[in-house]
Write a structure and sequence with these properties.
alpha/beta; disordered C terminus; 2,4-dienoyl-CoA reductase (NADPH) activity; DECR2-like; EC 1.3.1.124; oxidoreductase
Length: 317
């Protein structure tokens, strides 16, 4: 059953906006990334999403394909963004099946709550590898196609008019706002996302002369996502919601609309930027993990461990 358009895309954008375009997305089965891709497919694009879980990724691809009759959406599982060979094989398959890559969304990420005392070097490295190395590998394997697409869809330097063939050669890195002010129990992710941001900025400078744009979307608290369920204590949900400047959480549609803006003609002169979509949440003084049973600084001073941290290994450090 097709998901209602209102759940993932506003009425602002015209149908056919991305006809004949191809988007490649890592972490494409996730709540936010799948909405981003679904919006692009609805507007005419074909897509390739990759992820580690085969069944989940293939099921997400089939579901996203319902956004538009006749769309082509490939789901490739068993892809580890930390292994460049794995990604390269997925990129090659995408190009073979769909003809190229015009847009890239680097969305694969790892996260959990843990204090530095609980955070082993291996756990820290795992998040760095998924977020930073994974984003870099995504960039490296898709860059030749982004450059090719950018060359086909140049903005005329004299008239400044966009190409009649539409846009291409654009990459979005999905980041976060955690590292803007720092947040307890999120050291690993804060460091990783700062690295992802720096990577995007460098891409904008080095590949801008070739027509490629690179930007960051930094979601804030987005309702009904794996991240919010994992990171916000259930006993803090009501108080945290009330504390938001707009008095509510965002939706995946907000992130999808931001994605369309950056990939469409509207984003033709936007590069090296961070588009924060959080309703001004990060400007509030108290971060999410400081609410409820994990209240700051009392919980840290208690010496207790953050509960429900899975996959931990004891460390001597």
């Amino acid at each position: 059953m097709s998901l209602p358009k209102v759940d993932y895309l506003s009425d602002t954008w015209k149908d056919g906006l991305f006809t004949n375009k191809v988007v490649f997305c890592t972490g494409g089965a996730g709540t936010i990334c799948s909405a981003q891709v679904r919006a692009l497919v609805h507007l005419g694009a074909n897509a390739c999403i990759v992820g580690r879980n085969v069944e989940k990724t293939e099921a997400a691809a089939r579901d996203i394909a319902t956004a538009r009759s006749g769309s082509k959406v490939i789901g490739i599982g068993a892809v580890d963004v930390r292994q460049i060979e794995s990604l390269q094989n997925a990129v090659d398959r995408c190009v073979q099946k769909l003809g190229g890559i015009d847009f890239v969304i680097a969305g694969a990420a790892g996260n959990f709550l843990a204090s530095i005392n609980q955070l082993s070097p291996n756990a820290f490295k795992s998040v760095m590898d998924i977020d930073v190395l994974g984003s870099y590998n995504t960039l490296k394997t898709t860059l030749p196609y982004l450059v090719e697409s950018a060359n086909k869809h140049k903005v005329d330097k004299e008239s400044l008019k966009p190409s009649p063939a539409g846009t291409g050669g654009r990459i979005i890195f999905v980041s976060a706002t955690l590292h803007y002010r720092t947040m307890p129990f999120q050291t690993h992710v804060s460091v990783a996302k700062a690295g992802v941001d720096a990577l995007s900025h460098s891409v904008a400078l080095e590949f801008g002369p070739l027509g490629v744009t690179s930007n960051i979307i930094a979601p804030g608290p987005i309702a009904s996502t794996e991240g919010m369920e994992r990171l916000l204590p259930s006993d803090a949900l009501e108080s945290y919601t009330r504390s938001q400047p707009l008095g509510r959480f965002g939706s995946v549609r907000d992130i999808a609309d931001a994605t369309v803006y950056l990939f469409a003609d509207t984003g033709s002169y936007v590069s090296g930027q961070t588009l924060v979509v959080d309703g001004a949440s990060w400007r509030m003084s108290a971060p999410g993990a400081a609410y409820g049973k994990l209240g700051y600084p009392d919980f840290l001073l208690s010496g207790e461990a953050v509960p429900n941290v899975t996959g931990q290994k004891k460390s001597k450090l």
